[in-house]
Amino acid sequence: YASLLCNACEKDTTTVTTGFCKTRVFFSVVRDLLEGASKPVYDYPDSQESLNAIRERRSLSDDVVLKSLDHLTSIVTRKVSLIGSKILLIENSRIRLLEDLTRLSVFDYRSYILRPLKEFLLEKIVEMESKATIA
Q1: Nearest 10 degrees: CA dihedral of 31, 35, 38, 40?
Q2: What is the pTM assigned to this prediction?
Q3: Exposure string (b/e) for 89-106, b if CB count within 10 Å is 16 or more?
Q4: Where are the domains of the chain?
C-alpha cells in the first residue's frame, strides 16, 4: 500500500507545482498515514518536503499502513460525530431561545429588560457628555 500511495503522489507532482489545494491535502493525509500520526495534522507544508517524506516511507509493510489507516479513520469518525453533536446542541439552544423570546410578554420585557437597558443608556449618555465637554 505504501508504494501505491507513493506512486499516486508521484503522479500528482505536476499539480503540486501549480499549488492545487486538493493535492496538498492528499499529500498531508498520505504523509500522516505513512508516518503513523496519532491524529490528523491538517498541516500543508512545502509539497516537495512532503513528497520527500513520503518517498522515505515507500517500503513500509502493508500491516503498518492498514493499522495507521484504521487508527486515523476512527479518530476522524469520532471528531466528525462530535462536531455533528455540537452543531445539533447549538441548533437546539437557538430554537429554545427563540421559543422563550416569543413567549416573553410585554410585561416581562419591561420588568426584565427595561431597567438594565436604561442604566446602560444613561451610562453611555453621561460618557458622551463628558467627552463633549472635554473636547
Answers
A1: 0
A2: 0.52
A3: eeeeeeeeeeeeeeeeee
A4: 2-103, 106-135
